[in-house]
């Protein structure tokens, strides 16, 4: 049964890239490629039309009944953060394809074609752009700009996608560019609200805005034993000072979160004063003014580091995504679908980013959440109860039908 298939399929994907701490499936790695292969195989077996695009977005299309009707897109992503979990992204992709099969089983026809989508590189963990595939698809990022992005080893996305075991899928044709008529995404909540409220489903009201940065601090290297403390320009100490400046700013400003999740120190030896410290910064809030306030503190802090510690600080903003409200009529349609199944749902905002942020720029978009146990995600042991996973797929399938109807009544 298609709804039950969500469990073994997620387990199958979870084995691709799994290691002791979690799952590693960065975009255009052999592991992520293998996950895309599985998705394409499920789609082919069900008789759907499989296509891809030049950045690796992958589509499985079930035909609609009206010629020329624009597709309803339903999807999420197959890449993970390093040591990520089994459900973030994968659930929405597997849920989408299971919904299409559910329609086959019940002989449900939709007027619009429905495409299950695996968006390329939502996490931005390997190449420095979150929502990479959906951003290109939505025309926010130029494909060429995305293809020249490089990972930490200097490999470009273009080169990674050209490789046989990690790149685009063999023999899968390119998708002709068809604007979607609507977008739906099923996802684990990744926070504690649904569990706390004992409600099995959430309808997302809006997704927080976010900015991502790369910050490079350059000081002066030297011998760890000979240079007195007051004559040093230690890049790591200045970087650490800046990190705490940002943390304190975010705490003071409120309703904003700031995370420094990655830092590298060069040359990286115990007995060498750090020459360079490079770190990431991720800032999110539903209010753009609060993100701007953290940005201002960061820049003030950088000037202070230059004066007080004699280092140079370079701040690159890599990504800025605006607060993204979900479409009111789509949300109502999702609520109607959930009510028709006698299931309960509440409205809630998303602090996590999603491909729906980008799709909402070109089509009416909505998202459905299911509870995350302990509110935990972006960790190897993230979990959602099996009954909740199945329920989410049923809700998604009903929502697709309801959205199809809503679009027809326009
Ligand atoms: C994606 O999971 C994000 O919110 O960064
Ligand atoms: Mn996700
Ligand atoms: Mn994620």
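-> sequence recovered:
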């Amino acid at each position: 049964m298609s709804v039950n298939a969500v469990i073994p399929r997620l387990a199958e994907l979870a084995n691709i890239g799994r290691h002791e701490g979690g799952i590693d499936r960065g975009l255009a790695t052999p592991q992520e490629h293998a996950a895309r292969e599985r998705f394409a195989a499920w789609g082919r077996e069900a008789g759907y039309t499989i296509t891809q695009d030049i950045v690796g977005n992958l589509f499985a299309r079930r035909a609609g009944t009206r010629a020329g009707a624009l597709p309803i897109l339903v999807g999420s992503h197959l890449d993970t953060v390093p040591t990520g979990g089994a459900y973030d992204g994968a659930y929405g992709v597997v849920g989408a394809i299971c919904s299409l099969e559910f329609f086959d089983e019940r002989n449900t026809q939709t007027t619009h074609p429905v495409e299950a989508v695996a968006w390329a590189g939502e996490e931005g963990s390997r190449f420095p752009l979150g929502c990479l595939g959906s951003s290109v698809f939505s025309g926010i990022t130029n494909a060429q700009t995305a293809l020249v992005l490089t990972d930490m080893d200097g490999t470009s996305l273009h080169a990674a996608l050209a490789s046989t075991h990690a790149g685009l899928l063999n023999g899968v044709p390119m998708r002709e560019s068809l604007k979607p008529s609507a977008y739906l995404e099923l996802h684990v909540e990744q926070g504690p609200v649904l569990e706390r409220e004992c409600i099995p489903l959430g309808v997302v009201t809006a997704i927080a805005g976010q900015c991502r940065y790369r910050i490079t601090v350059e000081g002066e290297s030297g011998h760890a034993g000979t240079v007195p403390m007051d004559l040093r320009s230690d890049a790591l100490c200045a970087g650490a000072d800046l990190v705490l400046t940002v943390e304190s700013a975010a705490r003071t400003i409120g309703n904003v979160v700031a995370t420094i999740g990655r830092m590298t120190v060069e040359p990286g030896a115990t007995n060498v004063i750090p020459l360079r410290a490079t770190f990431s910064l991720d800032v999110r809030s539903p209010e753009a003014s609060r993100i701007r306030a953290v940005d201002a503190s960061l820049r003030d802090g950088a000037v202070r580091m230059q004066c007080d510690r004699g280092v140079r600080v370079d701040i690159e903003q890599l990504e800025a995504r605006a607060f993204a409200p979900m479409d009111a009529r789509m949300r109502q349609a999702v609520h109607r679908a959930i009510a028709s199944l006698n299931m309960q749902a509440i409205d809630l905002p998303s602090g996590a980013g999603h491909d729906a942020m980008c799709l909402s720029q070109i089509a009416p978009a909505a998202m459905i959440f299911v509870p995350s146990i302990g509110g935990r995600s972006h960790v190897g042991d993230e979990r959602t109860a099996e009954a909740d996973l199945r329920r989410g797929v049923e809700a998604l399938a009903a929502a697709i039908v309801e959205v199809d109807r809503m679009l027809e009544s326009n």
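The pocket of glyoxylic acid (ligand 1) is lined by residues 123, 130, 352-353 (CB under 6 Å).
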